[in-house]
Amino acid sequence: MPHVGAPGAPAACVLWDPRAPSGTRVRAWPWALPRSLAGSADHGQWSLTPCSPPQVNIFQAGGPISGQPWPESPAPPESPAPAPGPPRETWAGRYEFLLSCLGYCVGLGNVWRFPYLCYRNGGGVFLIPYFIMLFLTGLPLFLMELSLGQYGAAGPITVWKCCPILRGVGVGMLIVSSLVSLYYNVIIAWTFYYLGSSFQSPLPWSCDAPRNAELCRNASGSTTHVSASEAFWKEQVLGVTHSSGLGDPGPVQWPLALCLLAAWIVVFLCMMKGIRSSGKVVYFTATFPYLVILILIIRGATLSGSLDGVRFYLSSDWSKLRSAQVWSDAASQIFYSLGIGFGGLLSMASYNKFDNNVIRDTLVIALGNCCTSFFAGFAIFSVLGHMALKKGVPVGSVADSGPGLAFVAYPEALSLLPGSPFWSILFFLMLFTLGVDTMFGNIKGITTAILDEFPALRVWRRKTLFLGVLCISFYLLGLLLITQGGIFWFTLIDTYSTGFGLVIITLFMCLGISFCYGIDQFCQDIRDMICRCPPWCSHMLGYFKVCWVFFTPCLLLFTLIYTFLDMYGVPLRYGSYVYPAWGTSLGVCMGVLTCLQIPLWATVALCRESGTLSDRIQKATQPLNSWRTASARDVSAEVINVPFTITLTSSDFSAQPDSNT
Fold first, then answer.
1. Whose CA is closest to 358, among 168, 603, 538?
2. Residue 302 predicted with pLDDT over 60
3. Strand 639-641 and strand 25-28: pairing?
4. Most buried in the list 31, 52, 172, 321, measured by CB within 10 Å?
């Protein structure tokens, strides 16, 4: 072993992984490096740079040491200093991330939209375009969003340090998540109202309730008369019968206002400590719906008429495959049910460890979400088939989607079962857990985007205050949606907040990563993260690469075109109410507001650069220097002094150190 100061002795080194923002630095002499690290350096996976002055741990010395001053070596290049504030959180375990993402993706649409789309679009035949869209659009976009968040360890806005000209994509995600959070918690408020009403016997929307006796007598055998369940929903819950439309909201429904307040309090308490608290809650909220779906399937199988409902759900009509509407419905259902483009997936993945197997998580979460949608259809249509038999009407006349299924058709079907309050409580508890998990993801997307831009807010008191202000603001804005005419505003925001604007945001994310950041570089980033994973993970990147470059953008473009055709060809309506032109224009402005963020922030990025326009574009599409450093994770590099033994002699202190030392 050469000794310190001997001619030809190598210089001291700093060892670190340049790709992993949380990489560990080791300060050591090259001959004292562990064999595993030295081997990695030989393969170009680690970087060695000189450090100054050399630091040595001396455990054995041949006598007193009196050293001479050493010449200064060039200092290593400094990486940008991390932003001030406490370090970023990370998931306590892998299962917390999986359950959080699964709970975020498996939402109300899996229960109240997919079964309806399935029977409307050819039954079992609908699964063919559904899974084609899953493998060509859903999985690639899901993996892209998870990988981008995990590699960059940043929220929807800050992560675009990889391509500053596309920063508007992240701002657009923030706007979409805010609009969705505004109305989505109103659904949880409705769920709370029904959950509280379910503790009555008989159920207030059943024909056994004294107030509904005459209504049910008149509606017997009729398919057009208002049912007791529909009357309860429209008159007592919404109060929509007292409103004439969008311009006549009327007073606030105060029972719903209290339920909405309770919903936001639940969200605040569960999110108060960040992923440390919400990560524990999802162990219940993400698994409970599966238990309820299983129980409802078993109970439904014992009911008379259930087979008629299942047959109606899965009856195949092969001619439907020739309809563009079927393929558009399949693409939109995949797109929205996986939560792509909202920023929630990207934010949750940003709290992962750098070497988490993102491809495995993509397959587990996406396939689990789609299977949940399919099996939820059996729980829905088996009970609806029983209700159709009891009422003596076709199954198609009682089938519905959206709030009409969750708060009218299915509660009415449950009211016909023995022990109906129990089944009603179980069903609305399931809706609550489905909804609150999705809210966790939306709020996490919003807070992560803001906290990464302003790291000083990560201090616990400031973060709690910020979350409180956010929840109060959403609550006050949401009061408009629980007025007597609130359902009209709810439908408007629901339709346009996740319409063409969201598709355009996702299209630019896909094109930006593929052609601006570079698809080869992005695939290499994923390989860096999964380098310790099974070989099949790396082999799948070829398939995803083809999708990102060609199939996924083309299908997104098809979905966007069909969305525009549908938007201008079919007027927006709620029941028999047709929305006025000013209302539709207001909805279009929501989508345009989201899209405008892309050119707006691209212009800002270009103005910050210098040179000609082509020079500015080239600079604005290059990753910032902080993209591949530890600053993204706000974790200071840990320097480890590696112990080893050096024997010094008197000649070491009499000779001037060599210039190569």
1. 538
2. yes
3. parallel
4. 172
Reply yes or no on whether the pLDDT at 31 is more than 60: no
Alpha-carbon span 342 to 440, nearest angstrom: 12
Q: Percentage of the chain surpassing pLDDT 90?
A: 57
8 A C-beta contact, residue 335 and residue 559: yes
Alpha carbon distances (Å) from 86 to 82, 242, 345, 459: 10, 52, 23, 6
Q: What does the pLDDT read at residue 94?
A: 84
What is the Cα–Cα distance from 304 to 301, expressed in whole angstroms?
A: 8
Consult the annotation and say whether 168 binds a ligand.
no
pLDDT at position 649: 61
Reported as a pLDDT band with limits 50, 70 and 90, residue 25 is: very low
What's the CA gap between 400 and 575, in Å, rounded?
12
Q: Which residues pair with 49 in a beta bridge?
A: 14
Least confident of 36-45, 149-158, 513-522: 36-45
Angle at 514 between CA 512 and CA 518, to 5 degrees: 100
Cis peptide leading into residue 30 (ω within 30°): no
pLDDT classification of 20: cutoffs 50, 70, 90? very low
Q: What is the total residue count of the chain? A: 661
Phi, psi at residue 81, to the nearest 5°? -70, 140
Mean per-residue pLDDT, 147-172: 95
CA–CA separation, 646 and 60 (whole Å): 7
Whether residue 478 is predicted with pLDDT greater than 90 in this model: the reply is yes
Instruction: Say if CB 107 and CB 337 are below 8 A apart.
Output: yes
Q: Classify residue 259 as exposed, middle or buried by CB count within 10 Å of its CB (0-12, 13-18, 19+).
A: buried
Q: What is the pLDDT of residue 628?
A: 65
What are 407's two structure tokens? 């708060």
CA distance 190 to 486: 12
Token pair listed for 402: 């959206």
CA distances from 100 to 292, 399, 526, 553 (A): 18, 31, 22, 28
Residue 212 is assigned to a ligand binding site: no
Q: Share the mean pLDDT of the chain.
A: 83
Cβ-count burial 418-445 (b if 16+ within 10 Å, e if not): eebbebbbbbbbbbbbbbbbbbbbbbbb
- Retrieve residue 408's tokens: 């009218």
Whether 337 has a binding-site annotation, put simply, is yes
* Confidence band for 211, pLDDT divided at 50, 70 and 90: confident
Q: What is the pLDDT of residue 277?
A: 84
103 carries a ligand binding annotation: yes
pTM comes to 0.81
Task: List, as one string, the DSSP characters of 597-623.
Answer: HHHHHHHHHHHHS-SSHHHHHHHHTSP
**Mean pLDDT, to the nearest integer, of 445-468?**
93
Kindly tell me the burial class for residue 338, based on how many C-beta atoms sit within 10 Å of its own C-beta (0-12, 13-18, 19 or more).
buried
In whole angstroms, give the CA distance from residue 557 to residue 206. 46
CA neighbours closer than 13 Å in the CB half-sphere of residue 252? 15
Within 10 angstroms of residue 629's Cβ, the number of other Cβ atoms is 18
The response to whether 610 counts as a known ligand-binding position is no
For the four alpha carbons of 426, 474, 149 and 521, in that order, the dihedral sign comes to: positive
Residue 654: what pLDDT? 57
State yes or no: cis peptide before 87, omega within 30 of 0. Answer: no
Reduced to 3 states (helix: H, G, I; strand: E, B; else coil), residue 204 is: coil
Q: Is 341 annotated as a binding residue?
A: no
- H or E segment at 661? none
Q: What gap in Å lies between CA 517 and CA 623, rounded to an integer?
A: 8
Residue 191 predicted with pLDDT over 90: yes
Distance, in Å, from the CA atom of 282 to the CA atom of 437, rounded to the nearest integer, reads: 7
Beta-carbon contacts of residue 643 (< 8 Å; ≥ 6 apart) = 57, 59
